[in-house]
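Thread: quick sanity check before group meeting

JM: Hey all, I'm pulling together slides for Thursday and realized we never actually wrote out the predicted structure for the chain we discussed last week. Dropping the sequence here so it's in one place. If anyone has concerns about the input, flag it before I start.
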Amino acid sequence: MDEEKRDEGYVPVILASLLQPIADLFSQMDARGPRGPNEVQASGVENGYAASIIVLSIVVVESALNRTRYVRKEHEREHPIDTLSRLGARDIADDAEELFVVRDAIAHNHLWDATFRWDDEVGMRLSSARRLPGYGDKKFERAVDPARRMTKRLGLDVFPTRVHRGTAVVVLKKCVEILQFLESLDRRYVYLSQPWRVKVSSNLVPFYDWVKGLKESA
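JM (edit): ok, ran it. Output follows.
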């Protein structure tokens, strides 16, 4: 007689499922020869890949922090920045706030009223830019230098079409710093150091090592 089958617990945490897609997007972006932005925009291809990598990377972080609260039996919904602060990572939380600001600028497609002119040497040169009312929130106001249209701590572009490969590299490295912090507290929260590898150029590479080796310019 077959043994009676019993229900087993399962929590749908998506973070590890996104690691290979992130690596694939980087490989595809680099294969297109990204060149970085002018004052107004990166190429449409570079901008699209970089924006996708950033959004997925921050989804990984949010997923990891949801799991952290689940393991700690903290079931009330809380913003990831507040969770990091409670866990004693104030500096990391300040950087993480900038990651979420950039994520919002991409995901909600913040609109700016801008003018530009053509320059024979650099291409499009920005003449003026004003963020339209209704885009951004309190953390945007705290985190962004409006004159540069970049975050104050990490120098991340918040002008959506200017998001580029370098922006994506900084964001992903900071996301890994957050994941490693959580792992240092308790491997039940996150454990990617050994078991998780990504395939890059036909080689299996530990995810953290691959991110560590990324350069801001291709």
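AS: nice. The mean pLDDT is 94. The chain is about 45% helix and 15% strand.
JM: adding both to the slides.
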